[in-house]
Amino acid sequence: MIHAYQKYVSIGIPFLLPDGPSNWTKRVIGVPGDIIEGRIENGVPEIYRNGVKLQEHAYINPNPLILVRRTTGFINFDNLGPINIPDFIKHKTSYYKYTYVPNKSFDMQPYYKLEFKEVVRNENGNPILDYPYTPTYDQDICIDQFGPFKIPENKYWLMGDNRKGSWDSRFWGFCDKSEIQGKVNFIIYSIDSQEPFLLFDIIKHPIKFWSKIRFNRFFKIVK
After folding, report:
1. 186 near 219, Cβ under 8 Å?
2. I want to staple 212 with a disulfide (CB 3.0 to 4.6 A). Which of 34, 77, 126, 192 is the partner?
3. Is the pLDDT confidence value at 6 over 70?
């Protein structure tokens, strides 16, 4: 019997998790019955499926991630006292890891438009970068070392292509078949915005907003 997602191995799928965003897309690395193992070889994380090393370099993000601090919303609730304000318009500062191409300036980045003031720096004043093909740790535990284990029936092992910034099966284990919504075929549109509503970004950045639209990713086929 061929599992429903067997042909989707190494293909992105949208899915839901109770504690996650409304919709995620990860790559299927293993399907029911597969033996999955994560190893560190010569300092590089490698994935083995059924004893065979996966050649993942074709789809894993080859660029480092840069740590940035961004504020969304409109109103600084702390300065207004006990006033009830909808959460989506409150000022909220969050940290993100974005793909960074080192040989390009912040304002010429191809994936995310960065501002100098947004970039989080270390004690030496240098941007904090997380380089690809290096082990990832969670509370001093290397999450890239796991298994080998056999994937149970109706379970799947999912991992993100942006491996250094992906919250995936390495953290939360198997994904149940019932949480999978289907297969991703193409990207409808892509915009570099963290605002809860795009209108907020247009109002706050009426000129810069249009440079955040990634027209080259509209209707792009997902491989």
Report:
1. yes
2. 192
3. no
CATH 2.10.109.10-classified regions of the chain: 6-61+132-179
Which helix (DSSP H) or strand (DSSP E) does residue 44 occupy? strand 44-49
Taking residue 195's Cβ as centre, other Cβ atoms within 10 Å add up to 19
| 92-to-60, 86, 206, 217 alpha-carbon distances in Å | 30, 12, 20, 28
User: Does an H or E element contain 70, and which?
Assistant: strand 65-72
Q: Compute the distance between CA of residue 144 and CA of residue 5 in angstroms, rounded to an integer.
A: 24
Cα(121)–Cα(112) distance, rounded to whole angstroms?
A: 18
SS3 7: helix
Per-residue pLDDT tens for 35-69?
999 999 999 999 999 999 998 888 889 999 999 99
Contact assessment for residue 109 and residue 115, using Cβ atoms and an 8 Å cutoff: no
Q: What is the pTM of this model?
A: 0.78
Concatenated DSSP letters of 155-171 = EEEEE-SSGGG--SHHH
Superfamily the domain 6-61+132-179 falls into: Umud Fragment, subunit A (2.10.109.10)
Nearest to 91 by CA among 123, 117, 69, 115: 69
Token pair for residue 134? 């290096």
